[in-house]
Write a structure and sequence with these properties.
The protein is mainly beta. Helix content is 13%, strand content 46%. β4 (93-105) and β5 form a beta hairpin.
């Protein structure tokens, strides 16, 4: 093989690597395997998942999830970045749908994101604005049908980024007068003008378990109290 041919192959390989890195950025957060790399040559993605703030609430017969995600831009990009956002697939949860999504760079004006359902897995795909600053912030809202007094939010796929989240904060508001039965993490009860909510916060967060919450509704508690 000539030196010119070898150089051409190397350039094509670098171009393919860049495409895979950008295209898989958010997919890594939902469990896709990162590119192979040796210990002396760790993978470097164009984006790094830095922190998240998640608010969960029970709205009628659905779980509403509001997420704020900060991603660090390692490389300035002139074009949009394709991201995949996953929904939990769980026998205790029904179908999910995206309600709203927007993105901003370095605290600038948010831009609405258009999305389309993914064919490969439960979730949606969108293109963000160019990552031409230091931080890309995503604001999302989705709802998922409840089939039981149970909620789940995916966090275990953080490990696919091969680094912990600098900061993660989670809040959940249960139905009025509901009694919490189980939290997968040590949530603490707090009160504000809207009532009681439960919160958990962590730094250097590399989770092994998803956020899972179970509760007992006021009706179930009253029925149990009346039982002989």
């Amino acid at each position: 093989m000539s030196e010119r041919q070898s150089a051409g192959r190397r350039r094509r390989g670098l171009s393919l690597s860049r495409i895979l890195t950008v295209g898989a950025a958010w997919a890594l957060a939902c469990g896709a395997a990162p590119p192979l790399a040796t210990a002396s040559d760790p993978p470097r993605f164009s984006l790094s998942f830095d922190s998240e703030w998640i608010r969960l609430a029970i709205v009628d017969d659905s779980l509403e999830v509001r997420g704020t995600y900060d991603l660090t831009c390692f490389e300035r990009s002139a074009g949009p970045v394709s991201l995949f956002y996953p929904f939990p697939e769980d026998s205790l949860l029904g179908g999910a749908r995206m309600v709203a999504a927007s993105a901003s760079v370095d605290g600038g004006e948010p831009r609405s994101l258009r999305w389309e359902p993914s064919r490969a897995a439960s979730g949606v795909r969108w293109n963000t604005p160019p990552c031409d600053g230091d931080t890309l912030t995503l604001e999302t809202v989705y709802r998922q049908a409840l089939l039981a007094d149970y909620a789940r939010y995916i966090v275990t796929t953080t490990k696919a980024w091969q680094r912990p989240l600098r900061r993660a904060r989670f809040e959940i508001r249960l139905p009025e007068k509901a009694t919490p039965v189980e939290f997968s993490y040590p949530f603490e009860a707090r009160t504000d003008s809207a009532g009681v909510y439960y919160t958990y916060e962590a730094r250097e967060f590399m989770p092994e378990t998803d956020i899972v919450v179970r509760w007992r509704s006021a009706e179930d508690s009253a029925s149990t109290a009346r039982s002989p």
